[in-house]
Amino acid sequence: MLPIFFSTFILSACCCLTKGNCISYDELKELKTEFAINLYRHVSEAENRTNLVISPASVAASLELLQFGAQGNTFTELQDALGYNIHDQSVQDFLHAVYEGATDFSQGTVVQLACSFFVDAGVQLSPRFAARAARWANSSLQQTNFTDPNRTAAQIQEWIASNLGGGDVHGIPLESAGSPLSQVTLVSTMYFKSTWQKKFSFMDTQMLPFTTAEGSTLKVPTMHHTADVNYGQFQTAALEAFNVLELPYLGEKLSMVLVLPSHKRTPLSQIESHLSAKTINVWANSLKRTKMDIFLPRFSIQSLFDLKTVFSALGIRDAFDPFAANFKGISEQGSLYLSEAIHKAEIKVTEDGTKASGTTAMVLLKRSRTPIFKADRPFTFFLRQANTGSVLFIGRVTNPSY
Fold first, then answer.
1. 169: helix, coil or strand?
2. Which pLDDT value is given to residue 103?
3. Which end of the chain has fewer CB within 10 Å, C or N?
4. Higher confidence at residue 261 or residue 125?
């Protein structure tokens, strides 16, 4: 299977200087995962029961860049939201390891995180900030002319497309980025494309029932294969049972983790409320190699979020206030503030990455005593790095037919 993920993150107008305490590698892994969970929780609450996908890695990379340019309480709010101080050397060492893994073009895998500052020609950036930004997470600085909104928007869209494998970027609103009042726009993208360690076969895909979050049942194209995978069964504090399955990608540097309630009567929200960095770490250390019959629906999700409300819930408020924002680490000129925070992410999961033009009428006859993992009801998924535990994408499927 060749899934494709991408995300974009646009921050209009805004991104230096404080010391913090050293922090251990394991603590950073936990903080990074906790940020991913917190971000997902706030987004999923707002989106209720719909399909969704978000890239915490993309969002975090942008907030880290903003930390380089933030001062005073604006910096403190960003630090508290992320859980770490970007000026700590131990933090930078850990994040460089994360972002090295987020740029990979080996064994049929493409993983690419990129950031770019689009700066109005009239803005004089702090040399210190410019140097740091240029070295951070495959970042670049580009001059533009915000008094020509159409040209600026086209330039930004072109950059996004080039960093998303030429993907479709229509529908990303850039109103404030094209405003003559704008001075700086930060854009961050994450692109992922890979094949499973063991592919699904088109010949084994069939139309099978899926029970949606609303309780209705529909037939959806469902992939199937038998494989040795990491698998575990767990319970929440309320004794709600759920299954966790890890499907590795080629090279096994990255994997997709699927979280599925054991019973159809259990709402996915009850399992998701159990999510935390500690529980994910427990799963990672508790899964056992098991031969499984795996049934997984094809699914394709696009999500577009206005993150202002989410950031406010995470405690990031001053950055959006024209009078309170302090981004003097970016430029001493004028009063830069965050006018926009938009995130777009997409995931496409199929047997080998090509969109099927039809479905096969073949019926699976093979039955065995092999344990079954059957994702025929809403489930959560996340894409995770093996060495750092960093969550690149997280989302849920409540209706694969959308």
1. coil
2. 64
3. C
4. 261
* pLDDT score recorded for residue 20: 43
Which residue in the block uniquely carries the two structure tokens 């604006």? 74
Amino acid letter, residue 275: L
The burial class, CB within 10 Å (0-12 / 13-18 / 19+), for 173 is middle
Residue 6 to residue 250: CA distance in whole angstroms: 18
Residue ranges per structural domain of the chain = 4-194+301-347, 202-298+353-397
pLDDT tens readout for residues 189-246: 777 777 888 888 888 899 999 999 888 999 999 999 999 999 999 988 888 899 999 9
* Most distant CA pair in the chain, distance: 70
The fold adopted by the segment(s) 202-298+353-397 is Alpha-1-antitrypsin; domain 1 (2.30.39)
Q: How confident is the prediction for the chain on average, in pLDDT?
A: 80
Dist. CA 74–CA 320, nearest whole Å = 9
CA dihedral 100, 102, 105, 108 (to 10 degrees): 140
DSSP 8-state secondary structure symbol assigned to residue 199: P
pLDDT at 65 over 70: yes
Q: How confident is residue 107, by pLDDT bands cut at 50, 70 and 90? A: low
Mean per-residue pLDDT for 283-296? 91
* pLDDT the model gives residue 155: 84
What is the pTM assigned to this prediction? 0.86
Confirm if 62 and 9 have CB atoms less than 8 A apart: yes
